[in-house]
From TrEMBL:
The keyword Lipid metabolism does not apply. Residues 5-142 form the TsaA-like domain. The keyword Transport does not apply. One of its GO terms (biological process) is methylation. Keywords: Methyltransferase, S-adenosyl-L-methionine, Transferase. Belongs to the tRNA methyltransferase O family. CDD domains: UPF0066 (cd09281). This is tRNA-Thr(GGU) m(6)t(6)A37 methyltransferase TsaA. GO terms for molecular function: tRNA (L-threonylcarbamoyladenosine(37)-C2) methyltransferase activity. It comes from Pseudomonas linyingensis.
Length: 230
C-alpha cells in the first residue's frame, strides 16, 4: 500500500551540484546550509527545545536520483564503481523510496530556520523529518562495517597564489569558510575512481556562487587553479 510524505522544509546548501559533495556528513565541517521550514513547521513552536541539541538526524529525499524502477544491486563509488552490492548493504542514492539520512551539526536555531554544518546534501533537497541525535542510543561502540570501515583517504590540496586570494575574497563576501570548504571537499578526491587524470585535464564545481577549478599535477595531488564567480 503506497504512503505519501510531504517535506517539512528544503535545504539551502553550499552544494549546487552533486559532484564533489562528500559521501557522508561530517567529512567537511565547513559545508554549511540553512534548512528552511515550510508551514506549519515554520513557526517557533516546532523547533522549541532544539537549541539544547548539538546534532540532528535529517531524513530527506534524494530528489535528483529518483527512479521508477527499484534497483536490487548498486555499484558504490567508494568501491571504484566496479563491484556491485545489494542496495541494502550500501548508502547509495539510488534506492527504494529515495530516502537519505545524515547526522549534521546544528549551529543555530531560529523560528523556521535551522543553520547546519557538516552537510552532505544538495541545494534544494526536500527534508522529510528532523530528529535530535541521541548519543546514548545512536553511538554503537561495538559497531563494525567491513565495507566502509574508515573515511576516504585524504589527498593533499595545494593552491595557486591567485586562487587562494580569490577564495579568501569570496569567503569575506559570503561570510562562509570558503577556503576550508574547498580544501575539505577536494581532499576527498571527487574524481570518479575509474579516471586517471592527466595534468592537462581541468575539473570544476560550483560551491555557493563560485566556480572552483582544479587539476591534478599528478594522480593523488590536487592544485586549485581558480575560484571565480559563476
Ligand atoms: N548520508 C546520506 C545517507 O547515507 O543516506 C547520503 C549518502 S550519499 C552516498 C551522499 C551523496 O548523495 C553525495 O555525495 C551527493 O552526491 C548525493 N546527494 C546529496 N543530496 C542529494 C539529492 N538531494 N539528490 C541526489 N543526490 C544527492
Amino acid at each position: 500500500m503506497p504512503y505519501s510524505v510531504s517535506p517539512v522544509g528544503y535545504l539551502r546548501s553550499c552544494f549546487k551540484e552533486k559532484f564533489a559533495i562528500p559521501r557522508q556528513p561530517q567529512l567537511a565541517p565547513a559545508a554549511r546550509g540553512v534548512l528552511e521550514l515550510v508551514a506549519p513547521f515554520d513557526s517557533g513552536e516546532a523547533v522549541d527545545g532544539l537549541e539544547q541539541v548539538s546534532h540532528v538526524w535529517l531524513l530527506f529525499l534524494f530528489h535528483q536520483a529518483l527512479e521508477d524502477q527499484p534497483r536490487l544491486k548498486v555499484r558504490p563509488p567508494r568501491l571504484g564503481g566496479n563491484r556491485s552490492l545489494g542496495v541494502f548493504a550500501t548508502r547509495a542514492t539510488h534506492r527504494p523510496n529515495g530516502i537519505g539520512q545524515s547526522v549534521v551539526r546544528l549551529e543555530r536555531v531560529e523560528p523556521g530556520r535551522l543553520h547546519l554544518s557538516g552537510i552532505d546534501l544538495l541545494d534544494g533537497t526536500p527534508i522529510l523529518d528532523i530528529k535530535p541525535y541521541v548519543p546514548y542510543a545512536d553511538i554503537v561502540d561495538a559497531a563494525s562495517n567491513a565495507i566502509a570501515d574508515a573515511p576516504p583517504p585524504a589527498i593533499p590540496v595545494e593552491w595557486s597564489a591567485s586562487a587562494l586570494a580569490q577564495a579568501r575574497e569570496h569567503a569575506l563576501r559570503l561570510g562562509e569558510p570558503v577556503v576550508e570548504l574547498i580544501e575539505q571537499c577536494l581532499a576527498q578526491d571527487p574524481r570518479p575512481a575509474y579516471q586517471t587524470p592527466t595534468p592537462e585535464r581541468r575539473y570544476g564545481v560550483l560551491f555557493w556562487d563560485v566556480q572552483v577549478r582544479w587539476h591534478y599535477p599528478e594522480p593523488g595531488r590536487i592544485r586549485v587553479l581558480e575560484v571565480v564567480p559563476s
